[in-house]
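PROTEIN DESIGN WORKSHEET
SECTION A - STRUCTURE
LENGTH: 663
TOKENS:
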């Protein structure tokens, strides 16, 4: 039996494997690989795929599953923890981009509706590419990583209302006010329905399904919920994608969301790949060649615009200058959700095919340069921060936000501790310094934390230790010890380099999360590097050794050897020459057992001297629990009373025989 679609699927998947393998070797995102696959096998190049319509149907499933997983991963509780970054930062970035693009588009001859829609398209960045790069570079917990994540979360959420607005922008309705009112009414009904289903129906339903312990039933139920709610929203005039997002949101409020994500991800990856391939098929290569100079110019303008709006959003959040620059750089591309919006706009005749081709070309170019922007981002940032203009800007911001003399650098410090980063580790160092009455100064980039600590009369400086002037203000040249406790690996390297350049005699202690940073930080000038990974391993291993009854002084000696050798033992570069005394095997036949003295017991009302347990029964009584009191090492004249619980130590067979005798 001949199935035309099967041949197309084989072509798409085989070519995707080859292209993505090549892209992985050159560190390009997989999304670009799928887009290139679509270009190669599409009608404008090799025309390898014949049933384009069928592939687009699979692509629609990919969009549904993509929105469904976004809903699953969306947590209202987690969102509230970073609500300021998400709402304020995201709203400013999206709004500012749309406004600027709107006026530029109006100036170049587009209608108002087209201009707003183009603003929608340009405002979104690539969550998939940016987060993958940050995760690979271990920068998710850095200040710029947190800001970028917050803005991307807002973008992923705002795309849903954007999809609802597109049909209104297309001008199909003659009663715009009525349409908007009806849309708001639908939104209110949806919010109420989502709340009721997610809190009262779905948890109970999923509980009954999980009770069966049937994985197939659980998977099918999740998929049914996704498509059922998608079909329901489509039936009332809303999009399938919105329904999929709501379905994910409903399940995300239950305790089964993580399992649902794990089950859906493989399907999402496959069908999502068809979506990006189908987008690539629509790109006209001849159009790109003929209009390449214009496309390149627009791509540059989009990059600059998005860098600016990202920078502004971070500026409003009052983060450090370095975070502002990195945030702008990493958000300076057009994202994958813009593809979804663009297809809706094209189907609604909101944009012409020519505009669509420009959009596809610019999006692919901005996506393609993102890995390179990330690779050289820190060097670009360092160059920007070195400029005199940026130094004047930082001085202005500092003086504008803080008037305390300790901030301006007028206060002098000497022979003190410089604590860089006022997170958990930094706070603990400060507590220890206060306890020991040691002088210190804190450098912190969070203005809210700085304001709060200034109220508590702590010596704290607002600024980024990446900046040499900030370090000088903190008295780095006269300091004794610097403790670097920030979460940014690359930022930590730069801080250590600056500290060593400014003071050769400064003792630098660095906390790092990652093992691979230890050697690099030492070479840059750190005197002591504390690895969270190794310290956790040491703590766990100490508990393991303790359970094997190894003497505590041997355990402490072993830990000291590990730390003094720079964790070389655990890293495999050195061998520990000492031998730990293993007592567990020697004591494998002994135990401590509690026995309760019941009425009529042979021990009742007798003293320990009279019982002489060690000589008569070869056991030792360690302690007695009498009501709420513990008697450790009871003296020989102690009388055993009814209701006591006695703790005896000895060999297992001796204890068993003793229990038989006294009972």
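SECTION B - SEQUENCE
RESIDUE ASSIGNMENT:
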């Amino acid at each position: 039996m001949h199935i035309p679609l099967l041949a197309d699927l084989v072509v798409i998947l085989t070519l995707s494997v080859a292209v993505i393998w090549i892209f992985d070797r050159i560190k390009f995102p997989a999304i670009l690989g799928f887009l290139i696959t679509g270009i190669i096998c599409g009608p404008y190049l090799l025309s390898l795929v014949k049933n384009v319509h069928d592939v687009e149907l699979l692509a629609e499933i990919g969009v549904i599953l993509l929105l469904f997983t976004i809903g699953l991963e969306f947590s209202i509780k987690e969102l509230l923890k970073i609500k300021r970054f998400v709402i304020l930062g995201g709203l400013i970035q999206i709004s500012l981009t749309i406004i600027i693009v709107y006026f530029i588009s109006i100036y170049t001859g587009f209608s108002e509706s087209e201009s707003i829609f183009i603003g929608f398209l340009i405002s979104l960045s690539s969550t998939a590419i940016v987060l993958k790069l940050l995760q690979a570079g271990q920068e998710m917990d850095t200040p710029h990583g947190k800001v970028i994540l917050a803005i991307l979360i807002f973008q992923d959420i705002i795309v849903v209302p954007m999809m609802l607005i597109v049909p209104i922008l297309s001008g199909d309705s003659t009663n715009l006010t009525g349409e908007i009112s009806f849309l708001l009414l639908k939104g209110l009904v949806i919010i109420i329905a989502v709340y009721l289903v997610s809190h009262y129906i779905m948890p109970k339903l999923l509980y009954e399904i999980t009770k069966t312990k049937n994985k197939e039933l659980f998977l099918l139920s999740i998929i049914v919920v996704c498509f059922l709610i998608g079909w329901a929203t489509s039936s009332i005039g809303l999009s399938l994608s919105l329904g999929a997002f709501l379905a994910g949101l409903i399940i995300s409020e239950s305790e089964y969301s993580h399992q649902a994500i794990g089950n859906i991800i493989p399907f999402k990856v496959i069908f999502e790949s068809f979506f990006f391939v189908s987008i690539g098929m629509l790109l006209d290569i001849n159009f790109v060649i003929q209009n390449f100079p214009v496309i390149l110019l627009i791509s540059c303008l989009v990059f600059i615009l998005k860098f600016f709006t990202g920078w502004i959003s971070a500026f409003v959040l009052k983060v450090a200058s370095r975070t502002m620059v990195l945030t702008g750089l990493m958000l300076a591309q057009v994202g994958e959700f813009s593809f979804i919006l663009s297809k809706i706009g094209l189907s609604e005749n909101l944009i012409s095919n020519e505009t669509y081709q420009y959009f596809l070309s610019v999006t692919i170019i901005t996506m393609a340069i993102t890995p390179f922007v990330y690779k050289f981002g820190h060097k670009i940032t360092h160059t920007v921060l070195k400029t005199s203009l940026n130094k004047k800007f930082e001085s202005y911001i500092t003086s504008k936000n803080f008037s305390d003399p300790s901030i301006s650098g007028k206060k002098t410090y000497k022979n003190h501790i410089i604590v860089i980063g006022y997170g958990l580790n930094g706070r603990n160092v400060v507590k220890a310094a206060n306890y020991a009455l040691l002088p210190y100064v804190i450098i912190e980039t969070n203005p809210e934390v700085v304001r709060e600590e200034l109220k508590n009369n702590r010596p704290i400086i607002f600024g980024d230790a990446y900046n040499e002037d900030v370090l000088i203000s903190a008295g780095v040249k006269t300091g004794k010890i610097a403790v670097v406790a920030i979460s940014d690996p690359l930022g930590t390297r730069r801080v250590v380099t600056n500290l060593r350049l400014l003071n050769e005699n400064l003792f630098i202690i660095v906390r790092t999360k990652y093992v691979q940073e230890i050697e690099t930080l030492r070479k840059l000038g750190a005197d002591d590097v504390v690895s969270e990974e190794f310290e956790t391993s040491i703590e766990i291993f100490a508990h393991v050794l303790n359970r094997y009854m190894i003497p505590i002084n041997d355990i402490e000696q072993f830990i000291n050897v590990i730390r003094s050798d720079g964790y070389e033992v655990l890293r495999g570069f050195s061998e520990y020459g000492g031998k730990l005394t293993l007592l567990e095997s020697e004591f494998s036949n002994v135990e401590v057992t509690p026995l309760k003295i019941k009425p009529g017991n042979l021990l009742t009302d007798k003293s320990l001297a009279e019982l002489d347990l060690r000589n008569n029964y070869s056991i030792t009584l360690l302690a007695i629990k009498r009501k709420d009191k513990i008697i450790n090492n009871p003296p020989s004249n102690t009388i055993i009373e009814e209701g006591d619980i006695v703790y005896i130590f000895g060999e297992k067979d001796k204890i068993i025989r003793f229990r038989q005798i006294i009972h």
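SECTION C - NOTES
The chain has three domains: 4-381, 403-526, 590-662.
The radius of gyration is 33 Å.
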